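Severity: low
Component: inverse-folding endpoint
Summary: output formatting inconsistent between runs
Steps to reproduce: submit the following C-alpha cells with default settings.
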C-alpha cells in the first residue's frame, strides 16, 4: 500500500473514532442537567439587620475639680481600700483630696474681714451717738442766738457762727448714719467672701455625687489639677452597671425599621458563642455624617444584673425587623434568575429587576417571577415576594406549592460537558491554520483567539 493509501486509511479511522466519540457525547449530553433547582420549602423566617455598636453605661457622671491644687490623697471605698478602678461608692463618698493650704488661709482672711466689718459697724454706731450730741449742743446754741438776734449783746459774727455750727452738726449726723449703713453692707460683703472661701475649701475634698462604680480614674497622687475655663475630669462614675446600653450606629436607609421595644440580639468577642438579648430603647435624633454617610445612634437596653458585660466592649448587634411562621420560602437566587431567550414561552417574560420586596415592611411585597422546569423549557410563576433574611424570601402565589422545584441557575454548559467527557486517546482532526494564520491546537478549534493574538 502506498503512502497515499496509508493516509486515506488513517483518515477513515479518525473519522470513525470521532463519530463514535460524538455519539458517546450526545448520549452523555442528555444526562447533564439543564438547570440547577431547589425545592420550595415551608418554614419560619427571621429577618434581621446587622450593625456594630459599643456597650455604654446607662448613666455616667464625670467628676471634676473646681479648684486648682495638688492631689494629696485618695478617699477609701467600702472595703477600706484607696479609690481605684472598680471601686463601689455611695453618694458623698470622698474620692480624693486637694492640698487646701491656700484655701484654708483664704477662709481665715475672709473671717478676719467679717470681724473687722462688724467692728466698723460698732464704731459707726458710736459716731452716730456723738454726732447726735453735737447736734443737740449746736441746736441749743442756735436757739439762744435766735432769741437775742444780732444786737449789742450778740455780735453779728457770733450769730452767724451759731447758725453754721447747727447746720454742720446736722450734716455730720446724716453722714454718721450713712456710715452705719455702709459698715453693715461691708459686713454682708465680708460674710459672702467668707462663704466663697469656705466653699472653695470644701471643693478641695472631691466627693461622689451619685452611687455607683468608678470605671475610670484619671489622676494620681502628686498630680497638679489646674481648673481654668473648664473643670478637669478626675473620675468617671457609672450610676448603675446593672443596666447597660449598646449604642449602635444605624444607616439612615435602615433607621425606619428601628422601633422602640424591638428585639435585638448581640454578641461580644469577650464571650464567644454567647448571645445576649436586649430591646430597642430609643433612636437619637442627632444624626452624624461621616464621608457623606448619615447614621443615627440607636440605644439598645440590656439587663446586666449578673454584671457579666463590661462597659465599652464592641458588640455585633442583630435587630429583628420581621418574623414569619410557616410560610413558603424560596432561595433569593430563584428571584434573581433571568432565563435566556428561547428558554421560556413568549408569555414568560420577566419583570424588570429592581426592588423585589420591602425589608421589614408589613405591606404586601412586589410581584415577581420564579421559574419551574418543564422538560427543556421553563414555566414562569407569578409570586408576591415578602420578607427576606438575606438567603431566603417569603413568597406566595397561585400554582406554587411546597416541594416544587424552582430554578436558581443554569446547569453545566455543553462546552464544559465536552471538556469533561473528552477522551484523550481519541484522534484529533487537524483543521489547518485559522483566520489569523495560526495553527489551532487539537481540542481548541473554534475558540476565540487569546487577547493580543495575531498582532
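Observed output (run 2 of 3):
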Amino acid at each position: 500500500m502506498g503512502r497515499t493509501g496509508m493516509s486515506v486509511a488513517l483518515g477513515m479511522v479518525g473519522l470513525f473514532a470521532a463519530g463514535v466519540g460524538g455519539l458517546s457525547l450526545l448520549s452523555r449530553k442528555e444526562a447533564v442537567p439543564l438547570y440547577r433547582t431547589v425545592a420550595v420549602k415551608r418554614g419560619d423566617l427571621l429577618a434581621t439587620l446587622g450593625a456594630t455598636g459599643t456597650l455604654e453605661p446607662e448613666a455616667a457622671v464625670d467628676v471634676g475639680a473646681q479648684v486648682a491644687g495638688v492631689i494629696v490623697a485618695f478617699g477609701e471605698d467600702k472595703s477600706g481600700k484607696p479609690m481605684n478602678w472598680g471601686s463601689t461608692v455611695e453618694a458623698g463618698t470622698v474620692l480624693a483630696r486637694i492640698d487646701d493650704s491656700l484655701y484654708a488661709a483664704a477662709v481665715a482672711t475672709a473671717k478676719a474681714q467679717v470681724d473687722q466689718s462688724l467692728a466698723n459697724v460698732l464704731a459707726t454706731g458710736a459716731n452716730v451717738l456723738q454726732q447726735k450730741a453735737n447736734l443737740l449742743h449746736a441746736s441749743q446754741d442756735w436757739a439762744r442766738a435766735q432769741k437775742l438776734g444780732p444786737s449789742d449783746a450778740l455780735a453779728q459774727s457770733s450769730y452767724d457762727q451759731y447758725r453754721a455750727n447747727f447746720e454742720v452738726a446736722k450734716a455730720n449726723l446724716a453722714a454718721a448714719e450713712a456710715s452705719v449703713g455702709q459698715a453693715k453692707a461691708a459686713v454682708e460683703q465680708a460674710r459672702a467672701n467668707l462663704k466663697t472661701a469656705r466653699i472653695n475649701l470644701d471643693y478641695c475634698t472631691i466627693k461622689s455625687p451619685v452611687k455607683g462604680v468608678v470605671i475610670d480614674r484619671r489622676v494620681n497622687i502628686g498630680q497638679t489639677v489646674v481648673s481654668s475655663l473648664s473643670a478637669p475630669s478626675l473620675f468617671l462614675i457609672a450610676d448603675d452597671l446593672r443596666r447597660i446600653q449598646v449604642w449602635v450606629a444605624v444607616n439612615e436607609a435602615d433607621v425606619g425599621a428601628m422601633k422602640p421595644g424591638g428585639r435585638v440580639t448581640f454578641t461580644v468577642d469577650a464571650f464567644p458563642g454567647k448571645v445576649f438579648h436586649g430591646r430597642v430603647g430609643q433612636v437619637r435624633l442627632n444624626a452624624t455624617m461621616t464621608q457623606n454617610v448619615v447614621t443615627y445612634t440607636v440605644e439598645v437596653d440590656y439587663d446586666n444584673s449578673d454584671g457579666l458585660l463590661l462597659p465599652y466592649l464592641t458588640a455585633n448587634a442583630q435587630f429583628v425587623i420581621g418574623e414569619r411562621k410557616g410560610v413558603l420560602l424560596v432561595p433569593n437566587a430563584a428571584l434573581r434568575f433571568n432565563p435566556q431567550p428561547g428558554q421560556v414561552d413568549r408569555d414568560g417574560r420577566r419583570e424588570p429587576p429592581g426592588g423585589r420586596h420591602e425589608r421589614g415592611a408589613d405591606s404586601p411585597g412586589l410581584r415577581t417571577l420564579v421559574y419551574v422546569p418543564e422538560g427543556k423549557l421553563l414555566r414562569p410563576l407569578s409570586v408576591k415576594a415578602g420578607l427576606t433574611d438575606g438567603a431566603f424570601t417569603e413568597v406566595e402565589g397561585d400554582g406554587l406549592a411546597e416541594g416544587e422545584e424552582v430554578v436558581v441557575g443554569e446547569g453545566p454548559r455543553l462546552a464544559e460537558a465536552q471538556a469533561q467527557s473528552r477522551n484523550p486517546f481519541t484522534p484529533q482532526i487537524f483543521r489547518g491554520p485559522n483566520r489569523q494564520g495560526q495553527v489551532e491546537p487539537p481540542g481548541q478549534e473554534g475558540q476565540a483567539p487569546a487577547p493580543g493574538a495575531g498582532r
